[in-house]
Every structure is written in structure tokens, then in C-alpha cells.
Amino acid sequence: MKVLGIETSCDETGVAVYDTDVGLRAHAVYSQIALHAEYGGVVPELASRDHVRKLLPLIRQTLDEAGIALDELDGVAYTAGPGLVGALLVGAAAARSLAWGLNLPAIGIHHMEGHLLAPLLEDEAAKPPFVALLVSGGHTQLVDVKSLGDYRLLGETLDDAAGEAFDKTAKLMGLPYPGGPQLAALAEVGTPGKFKFSRPMTDRPGLDFSFSGLKTQVLLAWKASDQSEQTRADIARGFEDAVVDTLAIKCERALDAAGCNTLVVAGGVGANKRLRAKLQTMAEKRGGRVAFPRPALCTDNGAMIAFAGALRLQAGEHTDLGVHVTPRWDMATLTAM
Ligand code: KG4
Ligand code: ZN
């Protein structure tokens, strides 16, 4: 089965073709970062308009790269939520119309389920039961996955998401939007241990997170410092270590709570090198394993939507002819496949 996947929930237009026989045939992502940078964050209306401009050319390009004609497709999957309503509607309308025109089934996919399943896309050994750590710009969640589609929330952030904390911390030290990846790059040349920040909520039981206080700790340290390039890197390193340690401590607890030894990690912050290394070490120590998508499939992309769509279409599901999106959508309401 060859499925076209379309992702337009926020500021990336993502398109891919996933083939259940051979795997990912092609995927392309157009990032709107440059468009939003001067505003310091995503402007929803500009995001919608840019998806309108870029989606059809990107679909043509991806089909060309996959060497697949429109009439060879077997289904169309699109992100139906959560996300920005206007941005979601662009992808949903395009996907729904294309499927109607081609007489194909279409399926609306939950964006976080897309992220959650991405580690399985190129790793055949990664199968439920597992614990998923979802760490993106909008979410930080630990999910107990007993079978595909059966998602039980174990813990989540009470305030900022991990990616949001990276972005806000980068911003307050003067890095341009979105600062997460740049802060991580800066941390590479920072001195470990020069600045020590807390590991929030690890001193008590529970699987929830809180990252907003770390940002304040960084702000105070940055204001009191000489604000040199090296200090910025040292603080970045201290901040990254605090987030990574916190996530690793809670992941280990979640594995214990779920009685399982496989962790899958997804979402933009899953691209973070130090997080990947730390979780790898933690899992190996306990004789378990951790699965990550390749970094390009950690951040928003169409491949994860095509893959999740293929799984759900194969399970016999499809969405009706209407163009529906769900900007706020609890993953626990999804049905098992
Ligand atoms: O999953 P994603 O692409 O979009 C959302 O659905 O939110 O995640 C984007 C987030 C941003 O906050 C970005 O700063 C963060 O992931 N991010 C990183 C890294 N790469 C992306 N954070 C830390 N280290 C990275 N290497
Ligand atoms: Zn995302």
C-alpha cells in the first residue's frame, strides 16, 4: 500500500510517500522558519498562507522523487490535529480533495501519534509494549503504549514543553527564533559543570515535568554573568544537562512504572545529541533498548503521517468525506488498531 502523507499543523509543510512493501519512498519538508523569525514566533495566519503556497508544489516534487504517479497511490493521510486550525485546514482540504478526486480512502492522523510512531518507521525491532517519550515544542509526555493506538498518559509537563524551554532559554540569551537547535549547538562548546541548574520535580515521586523554572534560573545566571560568548555556551551546557538529566530520570521511572524495558523517543527535542546518548546509556544499563527516528524524522515531517496513516488504513479505518480538523485533541481518545 502506497500512502501519501501531508503534515501542515504548524510551521513546516511536510509531504511523504510511505510504501508498506518497501518503506519510505520519498519525503520533503519545507520550513517556514525564515518567514516567522522576524516576529520571534509562529504567526498563525502567515503559516496558513504559506502552506497554501507550498503544499501542491511539494506534493508534486515528492511524488516525482518517489517515482510514483498520482494514480498509483492507495490512500492519503493528513494531520487532523492538534495544531493551528488554519494550518491544519490547508492540509486537510488538500488531502481530502485529492483523495476524493482519485477515489481513494483518506485518514486524519493525530500529530502526536505520528511522532510517537516515527521511531517504528525504520526500526522493525521497535514494537509495543513500550514507553514513549514525546518531546516537541508543544508537548512533553510519557505514554504507556501496550499496543498500537492504545495510549495511556503516564506524565506530562505542567507548564513549558521541553522544546519550548529550549526555545525560550535561547531567546533570553539573545539567540534568534527558534533557538532550540542553536542552543544545543552552543552547548557542545560549553564547559560541563560551570553552571549547575536544578533537575525540576525529580526530588519527589511522579512522572510529571515542569520546565518553566529553569528558564528563570538561566535568566538570573545570564544577567549576573559577563555575557561573553564562552559564558553563553557554558550556560547552554548547564541548561541542556539539566533538561537531559531530568528527562532521563523520568524515563527510567516510567519504564519501571509500566513494567517494560523498551523506550521510544520522538518529537523535535529527540534530535538532541546529548539526550540520545544519555537515554541510550540509561537503557543499556538496565538491559533494555531505546529507539529514535533519525534526526530529520524527529522534527515535524510528512513521513510520520504517511506511516501512521498506512497503519490505520491497513487496519480498515478511514475518515469521512468532510474536511474536519481537531485543533485540541487528547491522544487517549484514539482507538486501538
Ligand atoms: O516536533 P517539532 O518539530 O514541532 C512540534 O510539534 O513542536 O519540535 C520542535 C521543537 C522546537 O522547540 C525546537 O527548538 C526543538 O524541537 N528542537 C531541539 C533540537 N532540535 C529541535 N531542541 C533541543 N535540541 C535539538 N537538537
Ligand atoms: Zn510536532
Automatic annotation (TrEMBL):
One of its GO terms (biological process) is tRNA threonylcarbamoyladenosine modification. Binds 1 Fe(2+) ion per subunit. It catalyses: L-threonylcarbamoyladenylate + adenosine(37) in tRNA = N(6)-L-threonylcarbamoyladenosine(37) in tRNA + AMP + H(+). One of its GO terms (molecular function) is iron ion binding. Residues 24-307 form the Gcp-like domain. It is found in: Cytoplasm. Fe cation binds at H111, H115, D300. Gene3D superfamilies: 3.30.420.40. SUPFAM superfamilies: Actin-like ATPase domain (SSF53067). This is tRNA N6-adenosine threonylcarbamoyltransferase. The gene is tsaD.
